[in-house]
Amino acid sequence: MIEKSKKTFAFLGFLILAIMGTDHFVSQYYKLKDSPLLQFSATGLKALSLYELGQYSKASQAWRIHYGLLYDPNLTEILKAALHKQIAENPDKIDNYLRLADLQFSGADYPSALITYQNALEKNKNVYEAKVGLASSLAIQGNYHESQAAFEDLLNQGNNGKNIAGFLNFLVALDKLEGSSIPNKEDLYLTLAYAYRYLSTIDQRKYEEVIDYANKTISTKKNLDRALFCKGVIYTKERNYELALEQFSKLLQLSPLNSEAYNRMAYIYGEVGNMEMELEYYKKAAAAEEKNPSCAFNLGQILLRKYGDINQANLYLKKAYEINPDNFAYASTYAYTLEMLREFNDALDVYDIIIRMNPESPEGYVLKAHCFIRMERYEEAIDLFLKAHIISPLNFTAARDLALAYANLKNFETAISLTEYALRIKPYDVDALYFLQYLYRRQGKYEEAYRAVKEILRIQPNHSGAQRVLPYLQGNLGKRPSP
């Protein structure tokens, strides 16, 4: 009764905020500004209202209406047959697996959905939406241990989901977990703790449910290590570091080789500025589980970013990459250290693998282009930047570096256009402004260069380069560019 009252009160709070100012106020509830929960259509608000009341299956159905993801029952078998055919013809296209699994899940054919999600992960073990679907399918069928492992894998990857269907299926699974009446609750409680950990990546208010179900798990005297881990993670996110360290320390008494507990403690020590303990615990994590790529990756990042030890960092990052070459973070960070060590050809090989894995993403092309710039192979860099731009508009860094490539090829007009484009993204970046005034000067556009320098000095009055070039520009004002 008390829980129902809390949900009703939460819903009334949401409703008041929605009336007061829609997304500006309601988005304060959620971690992600582009959350799938915040959709201000009639059905979107209905779905959010049902979600606030804890009616997750009904909320999922309403969001399906909003997103146009309902299936016509009369066409279900035809759609399944078509998707099976497409998968047979193009077995590497992951989207077809996800569509088929969603069709199966929404029709309550959970065993088939489970198999389809597994097939997708066999093609690419880092597909976030397939991991969400796998964890949900396992949970809804009562395979709690396997579901917990799937959720753990999902949470270690970080929230990068783009397919709303997987999340909506998760809500259905969560609803069924909450309504389960099985007599032995310890595995159910822990699965719910994991499920709410996933949901808390979107809605931070669910931290409370994670702690609650972790404590219920602990009260059963089973699954203590994983329940303590869940609590430690949430206390870390709440920046209650003392309580978080307490949970992880208790866990290590039960499981001394738990590398992830060492990793989490190392992170906390880093946050409080104890670099000596941070490095020590990352090393303990790597020693505890030598075949865990995340342990090697975390230690490599610390050595690279905080200690500047590129050689040692490269060794650990190479290890993480070799264990899981499909992981973008492992591959791209390892390749970066290869660039820093001037092992450019090896770095290019890694970037080629990244591009082959996901040719429809701009990231691999941009990274390889940056490497070409370091190698002073500007024309090849330009080709890659333009390929990336066709897929998705260039970000600030890519646009700025593409401008640099054109400048090195003496194409100053294009370099100016690209730098101006970059500055529309980050108008107050003094380095980009300083590069722009250089480009203007090379073209004899002294008035434009003068305005860029004045803007630099407005933002950063002590900028030595701008101060040095200002008198020269003042002396050339009014001069026309050479023909």
Outline the secondary-structure elements.
Blueprint: H1 2-26, H2 42-52, H3 56-67, H4 76-89, H5 94-106, H6 110-123, H7 128-140, H8 144-157, H9 164-178, H10 186-199, H11 207-219, H12 224-237, H13 241-254, H14 259-271, H15 275-288, H16 293-305, H17 310-323, H18 328-340, H19 344-357, H20 363-374, H21 378-391, H22 396-408, H23 412-425, H24 430-442, H25 446-459, H26 464-476
How would you describe this protein?
The protein is mostly helical. Among the domains are: 2-67, no CATH class; 428-483, Serine Threonine Protein Phosphatase 5, Tetratricopeptide repeat (Alpha Horseshoe). The protein has 26 helices and no strands. It is globular. Residues 16-33 have low confidence and may be disordered.
